[in-house]
Amino acid sequence: MPTTRTVRNSLTVLAGVALLGSITVGVADATPPGIPSAETAKSQLAGLTVKPDGSQTGYSRDKFPHWIDQGNSCNTREMVLKRDGTNVQVGSDCYPTSGKWTSPYDGATWSSPSDVDIDHVVPLADAWRTGASSWTQEQRQAYANDLSDPQLIAVTDNVNQEKGDKSPDQWKPPSTGYWCTYAKMWVTVKYKFKLTVNSAEKSALTDMLGRC
Fold it and tell me: In this protein, which residues make up the domain named GmrSD restriction endonucleases C-terminal (predicted)?
């Protein structure tokens, strides 16, 4: 029997057949840099400080200036769209005029960049609660625009909105086959930026890395 799942506005996709416009189902294309091996991620997870999340007080996305200029008329969002897409063509302003983006979170493929969000794998609000509230504005800007680590990835917009600022104990990608990779990305970002994890988060990450 073919498997089914719901993609965007409760559309049901059967056996990889698209039912609306540019939506298709396929192999994930988006691959941020710096994804560690499972063994490295497990070691990094063991090295993270475990403590309850801090307060959300004072948080604002404005304190994490993002989509900054990256040169050649491109901002951070446009750089990730070019990196994570297939056959991406851009105009003089660096905004994509064509291309396809496959979201590894749910396996859906989109041909309009407006259907794609650039997700902060470890959300800005989560970072604030787990250490970034004490950073300088410059440090938070560097975090929000990090193109060197697996912190930014092109994904289906409404799936990203469902994620919000939830940690892996509260939200996981709909595609269970991506849980290992997602956990590896989450852990290495927290490890690099010296962010903390709470006990439920660590337990969820341990389970997810166990799928690798």
Answer: 99-207
Contacts of 83 by beta carbon, 8 Å cutoff, 6+ apart: 32, 147, 154
- Per residue in 120-160, pLDDT (tens digit) is 999 999 999 999 999 999 999 999 999 999 999 999 999 99
180, two tokens: 């290992």
Residue whose pair of structure tokens reads 């799928």 in the numeric block: 211
Quickly tell me which residue has 């999340």 as its tokens: 53
CB-CB contact of 186 with 168 (8 Å): yes
Six token digits for residue 123: 């959300």
For β-strands 152-156 and 86-90, DSSP reports them as: unpaired
CA torsion angle for 158, 170, 174, 109 (degrees, to 10)?
30
Asked if the model's pLDDT at residue 16 lies above 50, the reply is: no
Encoded amino acid at 99, one letter: G
**What stretches of 101-178 show up as alpha helix (H) in DSSP?**
124-129, 137-144, 157-163
- Which residue has tokens 């289906």? 156
Residue 177 CA, distance from chain mean position: 15
| pTM for the predicted model, two decimal places | 0.86
